[in-house]
What does this fold into?
Amino acid sequence: MKVIVDAMGGDNAPRSNVQGALNAVKKYGVDVVLVGDGQILLECLKGLGVENLPKGLEIVHAGEVITMEDDPATAFRRKKDSSLTVGLELLNGGAGDAFVSAGSTGALLSAATLLTKRVKGIRRAALAPVVPTGNGGAVLIDCGANAECTPEYLLQFAYMGSFYAQKVLGRQAPKVGLLNIGVEPSKGTGLQKETYLLLEEADRSGGLNFVGNVEAREAVEGTVDVIVADGYAGNIFLKTVEGAGKLLGRQMKGMFKKNLLTKLAAVLVKDGIREFKALMDADAVGGTALIGISKPVIKAHGSSNEVAIQNAIRQGFTLAQSGLIDDITAHVGYMSMEREKMCGESVEKS
Amino acid sequence: MKVIVDAMGGDNAPRSNVQGALNAVKKYGVDVVLVGDGQILLECLKGLGVENLPKGLEIVHAGEVITMEDDPATAFRRKKDSSLTVGLELLNGGAGDAFVSAGSTGALLSAATLLTKRVKGIRRAALAPVVPTGNGGAVLIDCGANAECTPEYLLQFAYMGSFYAQKVLGRQAPKVGLLNIGVEPSKGTGLQKETYLLLEEADRSGGLNFVGNVEAREAVEGTVDVIVADGYAGNIFLKTVEGAGKLLGRQMKGMFKKNLLTKLAAVLVKDGIREFKALMDADAVGGTALIGISKPVIKAHGSSNEVAIQNAIRQGFTLAQSGLIDDITAHVGYMSMEREKMCGESVEKS
It folds into this structure.
């Protein structure tokens, strides 16, 4: 397995990316290709105390960097020698099995969609993080790649999320829920009401284990394995979980810092505190899979540190090994069949 | 001040409603009118050890109860002798200053809109809970009354939420944020993009302190006083905060329950644990104001216990004393002026 890493993307690039790659090579025995300015990367390695490229680590030069100031839709074309564009071209050419970037989400999404392309028949790629929930995490699909969705997109997200929960998280017959403001089929906006019917039909046909609408509270508590949402609502959900985790983490920290006795208490429950933190730790997950693209692509957090990069690399080869994309590819006809059967007219318009 | 309470609405009615009313009369010196089946209420009082109606507590008989099986849109008309309908008619007639119900949200919303009516010029009433955030709570408007919204609704929600934060929470020049998936004006769906322009204009004209889009994470952390959202997204936000609070609360509980030493730790930080719980305690808030209605109406949680009912009653008279509705009424023309200036065509269609 070989993972291609955009060494220049992210707030802490290239240092965290390089260190994360070094860790991954050592820890997982995976090969890593760092893509970025060769001179800078060699200096960075030197700064980290590495004089010679270790076995399993390669550098491919790319002279440009896509920044937050670049137009995400066109950046990869205007900067053909960017680490993002060169990295994806390497992926397309078969020089690696997965691609990881902590750079601009929009630029990665555009570039992956237009250079690496979606699985044929998939209408939109979606960002599908594994969010912390009471049942050990759930796949949230989409969380921001597509602010506006059609019922058809959501149907495809449901299938892709279900395959992901099966292949990557190892869930059997994953429970798929539609994120909504009540459990009744009549709840939500037109989008949820229409999507509900499609998912119900997919469940009847045996393709999905659709358990109905899921309210955000129950989704966090862990009643489903896959949370289907448009990118706007999914992003609100994800960021709210993160915000609440931070707020309550800070509250807990304050609780232990009051005086000597509370500090003693912190020592007594230090394992518990570590578990509490781990529950909400974005770095431990590493990144978010971009599902629907024809090859494994992982978006790492913009603020990724070396641990997050290392974990995103692990996620990259796990995704490549999982056979998820083959599964999606094999079932696209099925999703399409569903689609044409269920919503003939609205599909023809789209 | 006199608060009318739907004694029959809610999972724990009438017992919790009656006990909550007793507490409120005693604690706040407020008068309370309990509306419900007289016989049942008298027996309930007896069961609580109260033989004679205490000063400040009245009972008004209403022989019917609206249940979750009734159609929320028409229940108040079909059951004219229900505690909900009778209670709102009392409010309309001036027999009390505010109305509290823990019954069906949909039924309350329909009944309040059609019996008590909206403030003239306000297009939609909104549910506006104060959600737990890092800055001591923020007004979330709407959280589920209107799954689908127009930019005009959101503009009015922004104004109403801002007045609420000022009058009830005592915030000076409340910071108003539009719940979105990024801070740039181009983020979100068409709804957010259009609303952004309206809010920006309202800010320029001095009517609002609009600080721009706010991401869910920052909203939870407490960067704004008012979070403006359509009912679908607002509900996802609110329920996610609640779910994360429950999940992390449970995690913390587990952390202290492991062994004797961790139980000792719990004793050492017991004040902190209480504060942690209080931060996410829905009962402490009591209920959610239904803003935009021409009289103060509070929706208490369906699962309200006596503490929640007591606090919802407090919220009711606080709202009545605040002058919020007068403020909204006085400024409706202003909101309308904005509206016509900014989005003439789309308004005419609606």
Summary: Chain B touches chain A through 59 residues (CB under 8 Å). The two ends of chain B are 38 Å apart (CA to CA). The first helix of chain B runs from residue 15 to 28. Chain B has 14 helices and twelve strands.
